[in-house]
Amino acid sequence: MQKYVVIVAGGSGTRMKREIPKQFIPVAGKPILMHTLTAFYRVSEQIQIILVLPESQVLGWKSLCAQYHFDVPHITTVGGETRFHSVKNGLSEIKGSGLVAIHDGVRPMVSEQIILNSFAIAEQKGNAIAAVPLKDSIRWSRGEDNKVVNRNEYQLIQTPQTFQIALIKEAFNTEHDPGFTDDATVLEATGTKIHLIEGDYSNIKITTPEDLVLAESLLKGSN
Fold first, then answer.
1. Which residue of 28, 114, 121, 141 is surrounded by the most CB atoms within 10 Å?
2. Domain contains 179
3. Is the Cβ–Cβ distance between 103 and 7 less than 8 Å?
4. Rounded CA gap, 128 and 175, in Å?
5. How many beta carbons lie within 10 A of that of residue 53, not counting itself?
6. Does any domain span residue 143?
């Protein structure tokens, strides 16, 4: 099966307290987003990479690619109003059949094992969603009310979220719903069972300045 990855990178630098978008912040020698694309390219040069960026960031990305001599093959397309619309735009670039992983641009530490496993399980079962068990105790809360809940009944969802292309394209052929918190929920809305696979605690989504410190250490160690 032909394999694709849609990498969605629509963040800003607000929570990072930076002027540049967080996916462009240099970590371990190059912008975060370059590490992410490279992670999939290293697994297989046959994986076709589709990068989705806000229109305002496309020229900046091209400039960075020239500056860092970044030559991982990929196509770039423009995102939409929400992540849902951006993923939908990325999927529209795929003309054939096969498998597609959908991945956050600011998860550069995704491992080869997770990528390969996600494609393998999605080929068998239709979808494969990376997830990890909770480490901490959690409580349900609303206003001043709160109560403990069993953390063993919950999982933290990561990306990649990988699908048979026909299934996920059909699922995205709908209107946006605020309840679509990720790609799996879009497919789940069609009545399809979601299959979780083992993620990795190192596969963090870089969101805050503290995440940058951890990412720097992890990426330097992996390189």
1. 114
2. yes
3. yes
4. 23
5. 25
6. no
Using an 8 Å Cβ cutoff, are 9 and 33 in contact? Answer: yes
Residue 25 belongs to a domain: yes
Take residue 16 and report the two structure tokens written for it: 């990072």
- Indicate which CATH number applies to the domain containing 100: 3.90.550.10
Picking from 40, 34, 28, the residue whose alpha carbon sits closest to that of residue 221 is 28
Token code pair at residue 172: 């995205």
Residue 69 Rama label (left phi>0; alpha psi -120 to 50; beta): left
In Å, how far from its chain's centre is CA 73?
A: 18
140 token code pair: 């349900």
Predicted confidence (pLDDT) per residue in 26-84, tens digit = 999 999 999 999 999 999 999 999 999 999 999 999 999 999 999 999 999 999 999 99
Q: What is the pLDDT of residues 154-207, one digit of tens each?
A: 999 999 999 999 999 999 999 999 999 999 999 999 999 999 999 999 999 999
Range of the domain at 212: 3-127+157-222
Taking Cα atoms as reference points, which of 151, 162, 149, 150 lies closest to residue 117? Answer: 162
